[in-house]
Amino acid sequence: MTAAAMNNALIIERDGAIERWTLNDPASRNALSDAMVVALFAACLRVRDDTSVRGVVLTGAGGAFCAGGSLGSFASAIGQPLQPGETDPLIGMNRAFGDLLHALSALPQWLVCAVDGPAMGGGFGLVCCADVVIATERASFATPEVTLGLPPAQIAPFVWQRLGDATARQCLLSGVRLSAREAQAAGLVNTVVADGSLDAATADTTQTLLRAAPGAVAATKELLQRLRGDVPDLRDEAAIAFASALRGPEAAAGLAAFAKKQPAPWAGKA
């Protein structure tokens, strides 16, 4: 395996016709920083027209897949209303994540997500874009945004399309955490493997997928997309909803409680 590109946010390695993209911020459990979103989006645009790339494996470093969105660049905006006439920079930042999800979902190559540890929030959304998902026994999945006072805005259409209306509502409206086996039963995960076996299982899966002709894969993915319908394009509405919520009182209270490892003010109240 040779390194195709590397930065602080994303490691890209090439192994023959396969690229391996590794989310690379173990200290934050690979939370989706602005730099990581930009790097992933650029990688999607690059391979989209590269016929030498047959498939992509997306994974995370340090025993985690992705802890969700990073609030680092948003911290100063939490609970802070906009000034009159001010354009909200949060809208563009959040929409960029929506652009990434659409780009991942539209890749003509097959996309395998190899999940070890948590896949939360935005990480759950990334998994919903994959063609094949392999998870270790210790992997877990959740969309906890509503428990923090935020809507899971950009990922909602992808969760809905992947899991169907009933299961998507269960996940998105409650923030319930799914084990790897529960995620498999829900249709999010294809294969669950023992801890420590993820690389071997991923290699087996990619070898099977390489039996398929790349042009036929691209055409089949396009047909499947047309069959189930395009993911509803709610990027603008989702970005506005997220930005508005982050500046509101619920997010301020929910995120403050989370930071203190305390229940949110509304938790458990009838």
Characteristic terms for this protein:
single chain; 270 residues; alpha/beta; 2-enoyl-CoA Hydratase, Chain A, domain 1; 7-stranded mixed β-sheet; 3-stranded mixed β-sheet; 10 helices; globular
Could you describe the 3D structure shown?
With 270 residues, the chain is α/β, with parallel strands linked by helices. The protein has a single domain (2-196, 217-259), classed as 2-enoyl-CoA Hydratase, Chain A, domain 1 (Alpha-Beta Complex). It contains ten helices and ten strands. A seven-stranded mixed sheet has the order 1-2-3-4-5-7-10, with helices on both faces. It has a three-stranded mixed sheet with strand order 6-8-9. Helix 4 (156-163) crosses helix 5 (165-174). The radius of gyration is 18 Å and the shape is globular. The mean pLDDT is 93.
